[in-house]
Amino acid sequence: MDLGIILETNDAERVWNAFRLANTALDADHSVEVFLLGDGVEAPDLQHEKFNPHGVMRQYTQKGGDLLACGTCLDSRDLKPDDLRPRATMNDCLQLVETAEKVLTIG
Questions:
Q1: Which end of the chain is more exposed for a tag (fewer CB within 10 A), N or C?
Q2: Per-residue pLDDT of the chain in tens (107 residues, 90 and over written 9)
Q3: Which are the contacts of 80, defined by CB distance < 8 A and separation ≥ 6?
Q4: All residues at 6 or more sequence positions from 54 whose CB lies less than 8 Å from its CB, including other chains
């Protein structure tokens, strides 16, 4: 299955759970693409005493998961693209929606 996840939150537990799902899907030999949108572009910077968003995101990219981040959303927050938030466009988000077999929005 080709899974697309649009992540629109900076809630540490929701980010953590989204990437736990993404990692589980990769482990089951599914392809996964995650698009960080809106507050989701802040996900790599989140810290929490119980949840580790940064760690599960790093695990996801190390397993070969595709990760994109809305460039406009980065700019509006004065954030620079990096390996956990590669700059992308809404055309990239549209392509995710068009090509994924299933799309989840977590926000």
A1: N
A2: 999 999 999 999 999 999 999 999 999 999 999 999 999 999 999 999 999 999 999 999 999 999 999 999 999 999 999 999 999 999 999 999 999 999 999 99
A3: 74
A4: 44, 45, 46, 47, 84
Measured CA distances, 14 to 11, 78, 105 (Å)? 5, 23, 11
What is the Cα–Cα distance from 21 to 79, expressed in whole angstroms?
26
Tell me phi and psi for residue 97, to 5 degrees. -65, -40
Q: What are the residue ranges of helices labelled H in 1-107? A: 12-27, 53-62, 71-76, 90-99
Q: Residue 101 corresponds to which amino acid? A: E
User: Hunting for tokens 């988000």 — which residue is that?
Assistant: 93
Q: What is the pTM of this model?
A: 0.96
End-to-end alpha carbon distance in the chain: 22
